[in-house]
Amino acid sequence: MPTSLAAVRVRQVRRVTVDTVNLASIEPASGAATTVLIPVTEHGDMEPRFGRAPRVAVATVVDGIVTTWREYAVGWDAAHDAGTPGSHHARIVRFLNDHRVDTIVAEHMGVGMRRVVDRMGIRLLTVPGGAARQAVSLALASAEAARKSPH
Known about the structure:
Largest sheet: 5 strands, mixed
Structural class: alpha/beta
Strand content: 15-25%
Helix content: 40-55%
Order of helices and strands: HEEEHHEHEH
């Protein structure tokens, strides 16, 4: 006996719902995704102190558009002077690895942390500050323009 059209539609809706949940974590195929970390203030501006930032944002950027933005209270300001510089760097490295960061946008970063980030293969883009979301877009656009321009 043939299945009714209503039954087929119900099965399709269920399938779409399951597929949507499973596909939610997959990046769009339109372009390469970049995972950017930026130190931020509670008001959405850039925090000027990378290693002493109380908060950071991790953004996913695809084709120059910020597609996700998540903020974390990391407490690096309080943890900075607790223990050795190496232990603080290790704390930051764990965060970078856990969130698969490939680019950092910052106003300032100390020499030791710059060395660590460089060894990790993470791109560091420095910008003068301002609104954090705009700084991410501007830094990535500037880096892309510099990459494309003949020197």
